[in-house]
Design goal:
With about 280 residues, the protein is α/β, with parallel strands linked by helices. Helix content is about 45%, strand content about 10%. It contains twelve helices and six strands.
């Protein structure tokens, strides 16, 4: 900006020479200089934006920041929030695709795609989705197997391990089934990974009265909600962080899932976190 350049140079050069070189009228210069030197009229708003952004670990884009500001009483447009976040250098991370694939060909029984991309649920424990994702630190690997309830997108159970084996997936399913009320029989959807074709997985579902559903071969969109969760998780807590070992990563994943369930707001959940949304729905 010309005015800023003149202000920075006027201690060394004559003002009239600088104004002539910049093509600025004296009145224009002094008007804008007063604005630059005066208090920022949006200083309080910028501070509020920064607080929302930083308190949520730099994981909120302008839409979520805007929602939090509105809840706090601010009257402001989303585009204004976006503009100010750009000025402040507050950049939300962009998600990447995951590299890990659990499909190893048909090794057991494949179930029909009963979910059929209907990711809505009118009550808890109607529809669950699950999958496995991989994290790499040097030559070491860590695998996460979460179970998500589509009612509020809450991660109701998960397991971590150094191998994507049957124990990993079965442990997360057992933990999820343990919270079921009597009579609840969810539809449990996964991809065609070998873990989900195995008799042990199908036996756990049958014992609980749950129904199995599987994505079509090689179609990640059939399990889009859990894929979406993995995308957010990796961009918000993994790709931009350097972990020294698997223990540090394990702690970070526990912390992230706790934050995701209890604090991370979602526009699809009326601006509430999964836990808040479920509590509100059950209290209604």
């Amino acid at each position: 900006m010309k005015v800023r350049a003149v202000v920075s140079l006027k201690a060394e050069y004559r003002l009239d020479v600088l104004l002539q070189a910049a093509g600025l009228a004296r009145s224009t210069f002094f008007y804008h200089q007063a604005r630059l030197l005066g208090p920022d009229p949006r200083g309080e708003l910028k501070a509020a934006i920064t607080e929302v952004f930083t308190s949520n670990h730099a994981r909120y884009g302008h839409r979520r920041v805007h929602h939090e500001l509105v809840k706090a009483g601010w009257q402001i447009a989303k585009k204004t929030v976006l503009k100010l976040m750009r000025q402040l250098g507050l950049i939300c991370r962009v998600r990447r695709k995951r590299p890990y694939l659990s499909y190893q060909g048909q090794t057991g029984q494949v179930a029909a795609n009963l979910l059929d991309r209907d990711f809505t649920a009118s009550a808890p424990n109607q529809k669950w989705v699950t999958d496995v994702t991989e994290f790499r630190i040097g030559n070491d690997k860590l695998y996460l197997s979460p179970v998500m309830d589509l009612f509020d997108r809450q991660i109701i159970a998960y397991s971590l391990g150094t191998s994507p084996n049957l124990q990993l997936t079965n442990n997360s399913l057992r933990a999820a089934l343990a919270i079921l009320d009597d009579g609840a029989a969810p539809l449990v959807h996964s991809d065609q990974g070998f873990q989900y074709q195995h008799t042990s997985w199908r036996h756990l579902l049958a014992e609980a009265g749950a129904t199995q559903s599987m994505s079509r071969k090689g179609n990640c969109y059939d399990n889009a909600m859990i894929e979406n969760f993995f995308g957010h998780l990796k961009e918000e807590a993994f790709h931009h962080v350097r972990y020294l070992n698997l223990d540090a990563l394990t702690t970070a994943l526990h912390d992230y899932i706790r934050w995701y369930n209890n604090d991370r707001i979602s526009t699809r959940l009326e601006g509430l976190s999964p836990v808040q949304y479920r509590a509100q729905a059950l209290a209604a």
